[in-house]
Amino acid sequence: MSGVSEPLSRVKVGTLRRPEGPPEPMVVVPVDVEKEDVRILKVCFYSNSFNPGKNFKLVKCTVQTEIQEIITSILLSGRIGPNIQLAECYGLRLKHMKSDEIHWLHPQMTVGEVQDKYECLHVEAEWRYDLQIRYLPEDFMESLKEDRTTLLYFYQQVKSTPVSQNTLNAELHPFSAGEVLRNDYMQRYASKVSEGMALQLGCLELRRFFKDMPHNALDKKSNFELLEKEVGLDLFFPKQMQENLKPKQFRKMIQQTFQQYASLREEECVMKFFNTLAGFANIDQETYRCELIQGWNITVDLVIGPRGIRQLTSQDTKPTCLAEFKQIKSIRCLPLEEGQAVLQLGIEGAPQSLSIKTSSLAEAENMADLIDGYCRLQGEHKGSLIMNAKKDGEKRNSLPQIPTLNLEARRSQLSESCSIESDIYAEIPDETLRRPGGGFRVLKEDGYPTTTVTIVGAPGGPQYGVSREDVVLNRILGEGFFGEVYEGVYTNHKGEKINVAVKTCKKDCTQDNKEKFMSEAVIMKKLDHPHIVKLMGIIEEEPTWIIMELYPYGELGHYLERNKNSLKIPTLVLYSLQVCKAMAYLESINCVHRDIAVRNILVASPECVKLGDFGLSRYIEDEDYYKASVTRLPIKWMSPESINFRRFTTASDVWMFAVCMWEILSFGKQPFFWLENKDVIGVLEKGDRLPKPDLCPPVLYTLMTRCWDYDPSDRPRFTELVCSLSDIYQMEKDIAIEQERNARYRPPKILEPTAFQEPPPKPSRPKYRPPPQTNLLAPKLQFQVPEGLCASSPTLTSPMEYPSPGNSLHTPPLHRHNVFKRHSMREEDFIRPSSREEAQQLWEAEKVKMRQVLDRQQKQMVEDSQWLRREERCLDPMVYMNDKSPLTPEKEAGYMEFTGPPQKPPRLGAQSIQPTANLDRTDDAVYHNVMTLVEAVLDLKNRLSQLPPEDYVLVVKNVGLNLRKLIGSVDDLLPSLPSSSRTEIEGTQKLLNKDLAELINKMRLAQQNAVTSLSEDCKRQMLTASHTLAVDAKNLLDAVDQAKVLANLAHPPAE
């Protein structure tokens, strides 16, 4: 067992090459052991020895000893080998033996810090310290040839698996560098590779393991049997391979393959093993499952290795490089709620950090240590890039000091970095539109820019001077390009304490950046509006501070995402209205904002938002911006003229405001997130616009489309938008109140005699086709009004004055804002009787009248039954081909004197359904998916009348899922079809998507009118929409069949 040396204390090592001759004693700086806590750490490492006492070293240290000193002492001791050249590749890992908890210890951490931060979480005996190779050079295969000790140690680390229990360090974390090699090979890859590959790797390890064995030793049966019994073949070959081959055959294969490597030395076997394994396994990288924060969270596999930081979205794609280690300037770990954390990497030449969200703080710290180690290994400086690596916890729990002249020492590294090349923002050369001073553009009355006004606090202008003594800084809210942003308390001249946000400017900022920093404050001096962030004061002496109102709810985008389940449509419209009022104010003073988005809007209260971040403040600090050579602007928010001609006017602000409204109604989603920046202008030029959000009222989306008019002069002005949004807000608020009232109020049921407990009467239908009528004043109001509505509302005319659907060419959709009021009976029926006899007569007359209505309703039910059966036969001609049941129920015999049912209204776009082609349908995925879709439509038809309104979505969702499968099967077949047929097929696919959208709209309409008299009409519209979808699916099948015939892919059915 190894001895215990004197306590370590700041060992300074010049070289790790062990000199020849007897080892010299370790040079130790004297330390008063009695005044410091002394500990003995047991550090495990890899070894070829089967003696457990040679697989660890006891290190005596104090609580002030750094982790790097412990690593150095083990490497200098010679326990793992002589002449170590790559000492910077080693790291120390703390592992909890009873769980998967892993902590990589930063070299600058002290033993006391490890004890306070990690060891206190579990019993001390359950922790184990492991010496590992974690950081590999970029050309590690060549570098390891120069360092034999590190090469063999890395190989021992690679090949160690849970199969071998001879060493104390057999258990390894599955994602550590090198451990994924042999460990993952035996556990994950060994069963997947070919027998030849597994045989080669096993014989290489066999040759290395028995490096002194003659090349023909295994030819002897006794030697082979000794190998099987004493060592075991499981150490070299996969168990599945041994089970699949006969013992005699397996032995012969080993003997033949071993002869190929019998002449190799130990190092050559190791290198050959690495080269072979690298063909199908990543042997030099670690993989973390995490989320990239880029406006929205993207779940990726983050690959960290000698070639930099890369992301892997799927196993079939190549990793995309996010950053190289030489570009990284700072590393920071920030804890989040629910145990999660964010790792922020400062990138050189980028305005914001690369933010990575992890599932735990320990995982973020392990990634930070890995990245910092590679930066030390490949970078020019050897210091740590982790900000406050040793005192981060103390700083987080303590209040920051007021910035002084040594602010440079606390400079934020995050501001010198930006995220990877964002797919949301792109380069916009804008040299002519913005001068270094920043600021807004002054416009003419026609809305077009004239001269640029540089606002930089001219002498003699108004000063918002504030004494630094009146501001108390608290915690840090964030950091940006100019400096840190603090939460603070400001005491005004009246003695009132106000919560404020304080932006600071770094001391080493250039004069140009200081002017840009001050330009925002000067701009905000001139603004006074209840929905614009208010400037509280400025401290112009260095370090410069800008003091503004503090809003605890934060940015609107984050607020919408957090509260999307509780926010209602009227509240979202209210937010849009308030921002519009702020923009109308800017319009009145001839200013353009140029960056209207939810990220630039702050939430003052659940009912109030404020527009902020004017000028370069948000322009620099926004995490979504892509750094370009001259300027960076949000492409996907901008109007066509701004993208094409760098033209920014009030009209372009209107466009951006409409995009901001779209963000609000989409609960913070980013516009055109499915497109790249370079593709946006092409989409806009074709006339395509953002789709309507699910909860957006149609009238509001119509207003958005007006704001997205290609011609700037045709877009509405903000003053007009304020009026329109005010009306929409009031309308949505009234609808919400009405819906809440309907949810609380349910009309009492009228108890009738038993004989009359039947369905309520349906509106009567005329037995003739009325003459066509035309409403010249409001053609969109030409739809049939049910008789029940006309009877209860004196303002509505008789249904005779409206054309029936039978002669109407167009049936417009029912508007969600048309709220009708209906009574159970007509008002003239409630004549107060003068005597008991008269009351009895009225009751008898009402009974006769009710019976007539019920008889007429029963006749209509018979007609509906016939009509529905015809619809079913049209929907799927194969379903009722063999159905011999009569179409008329037995009760129909009593109604032979009836003149006949009225003609059903013709279905718009009705198509004569032709039978499908007579082809062999074996393994025809398109045909089977069409049949499944038709069955889903039939299921919707059969269950619609039985389901409650809230369950309509289930049957519609079933239709949508089957439609997705159908389109997917067509997409798989499309490349093999002639190009001349693809246009028709793709057009039919788009039509099916529109049919599904129409079905969803009809479903929502039916849910909204479930308690009104329009319920049955809305259900019929759902059935019609589903029928149309089924017919178009059949047309898609016909188009595919026709294309298959042209491509000689179709075959006649078997005899």
From TrEMBL:
One of its GO terms (molecular function) is non-membrane spanning protein tyrosine kinase activity. Residues 471-729 form the Protein kinase domain. It is an enzyme of class 2 (transferase). Residues 758-772 have a biased composition (Pro residues). It is a peripheral membrane protein. PROSITE patterns: FERM_3, PROTEIN_KINASE_ATP, PROTEIN_KINASE_DOM, PROTEIN_KINASE_TYR. Pfam families: FERM_C_FAK1, FERM_M, FERM_N_2, Focal_AT, PK_Tyr_Ser-Thr. Keywords: Adaptive immunity, Angiogenesis, ATP-binding, Cell junction, Cell membrane, Cell projection, Cytoplasm, Immunity, Kinase, Membrane, Nucleotide-binding, Nucleus, Phosphoprotein, Transferase, Tyrosine-protein kinase. Its EC number is 2.7.10.2. One of its GO terms (biological process) is adaptive immune response. It catalyses: L-tyrosyl-[protein] + ATP = O-phospho-L-tyrosyl-[protein] + ADP + H(+). Coiled coil: none annotated. Residues 743-772 are annotated as: Disordered. Its main location: other. InterPro entries: Band_41_domain (IPR019749), FADK_N (IPR041390), FAK1-like_FERM_C (IPR049385), FAK1/PYK2_FERM_C (IPR041784), FERM/acyl-CoA-bd_prot_sf (IPR014352), FERM_2 (IPR035963), FERM_central (IPR019748), FERM_domain (IPR000299). ATP binds at residue 503. SUPFAM superfamilies: FAT domain of focal adhesion kinase, PH domain-like, Protein kinase-like (PK-like), Second domain of FERM, Ubiquitin-like. It is found in: Cell junction, Focal adhesion; Cell membrane; Cell projection, Lamellipodium; Cytoplasm, Cell cortex. Residues 39-382 form the FERM domain. One of its GO terms (cellular component) is nucleus. PANTHER family: FERM AND PDZ DOMAIN-CONTAINING PROTEIN FAMILY MEMBER (PTHR46221), NON-SPECIFIC PROTEIN-TYROSINE KINASE (PTHR46221:SF11). Belongs to the protein kinase superfamily. Tyr protein kinase family. Fes/fps subfamily. This is Protein-tyrosine kinase 2-beta. The lineage of its organism: Eukaryota, Metazoa, Chordata, Craniata, Vertebrata.
